[in-house]
Structure formats: structure tokens, C-alpha cells
Amino acid sequence: MSPSYKIPESVLVVIHTPELQVLMLERADQPGFWQSVTGSKDMLDEPLLETARREVLEETGINAEPDQLRDWVLVNRYEIYPVWRHRYAPGVTHNSEHVFGLQVPAGTLVRLAPREHLQYRWLPWREAADLCFSPSNAEAILHLPKLLETSL
């Protein structure tokens, strides 16, 4: 059973190709707001890796195996935008966002959840970062080339 309020612990999953094309999604509830896959834990004890897998599948239709997701060991703590604060328990003002990466082949089929997103784009990493409305999302995308370089 889902809690009545969102849990202020979430994941951000930067989906990208080996050529550093990044998948960007336009929010249905805020047209013009572009982002990577994001989502909160469904339960307090839900492992972050499972949250990341679930959100990727729900938002894009991509079924990522656990070993395909890379924990970037990066946690952003930020103030929740006032427009979305009503989703959280009274007095909750901040969220902890755990960043993951998912590399997929170019041409990977994307199936959007229409209640969550209006459209998607594959963009070069710098353009994707520039398109983000969220500073933490943009910063994560800007880390992408260096993170891939260190994993080779």
C-alpha cells in the first residue's frame, strides 16, 4: 500500500546512449519543464535500486536489469518546489535525491506514461543539461562524460 504522502527520498536516473545522447522528458503537469526520469520511493524500505528500476519502467517502458543501473554515489538534497509540496507530509520541505545512470543503445524504444509526460527527446548531453528546469538534474547530466570516462 502506498503512503498517503510522498516519501522525501527519490531517485534521478540519467538515461543515455554510449554517444552521450540523453533522454529528456517533458512533464505533463508542468508543460515546458524537462527532466530525466525521477521518482520517489513507494515504501520507506524500498531499495533505491528498485525505485530506480520501477521509475524507469513506469516512465519510459525501458525494463532495466539491476546490473545495468549505475549508482553514481551522488545525493542531492534540495528544497521541494512549493508547487509540489502538497504531495508531502506537512512540514516536509526538503528531498534527498539519489542519482543513477542507465546506458542504453541508440534507438532504444521509449514508451511514455501519458499521465506523467507529454513528449521525449534524445539530446546531446550539453543541450540536455541546458533544457533541464531542475539545477540538480542539469548538474548530474554535466557529470556524465567524466563518470563514463572513469568507468572505462
Strand and helix order: EEEEHEEEHH
Sketch the major β-sheet: 4 strands, mixed
Poorly predicted sequence stretches spanning 5 or more consecutive residues? none
Outline type: globular
By DSSP (H or I, 4+ residues per run), the number of helices equals 3
Number of strands: 7
Proportion in β-strands: 25-35%
Distance between the termini: 41 Å
Instruction: Supply Rg.
Output: 15 Å
Spatial order of the strands in the main sheet? 4-1-6-5
- Assign a percent range to the helix content: 10-25%
Structural class: alpha+beta
Which whole number gives the mean pLDDT? 94
List keywords for this structure.
single chain; 152 residues; alpha+beta; 4-stranded mixed β-sheet; 3-stranded antiparallel β-sheet; globular
Provide structural commentary.
The chain has 152 residues and is of the alpha+beta class. It has helices spanning 48-60, 125-131, 135-150; strands at 9-16, 21-27, 34-35, 37-40, 69-79, 94-103, 117-124. The strands form two sheets. It has a four-stranded mixed beta sheet with strand order 4-1-6-5. The protein has a three-stranded antiparallel beta sheet with strand order 3-2-7. Strand 2 and strand 3 (34-35) form a beta hairpin. Helix 2 packs antiparallel against helix 3 (135-150). The longest helix is centred in the last third of the chain and has 16 residues, at 135-150. It is globular, with a radius of gyration of 15 Å. The termini are far apart. The model has no long low-confidence stretch (mean pLDDT 94).
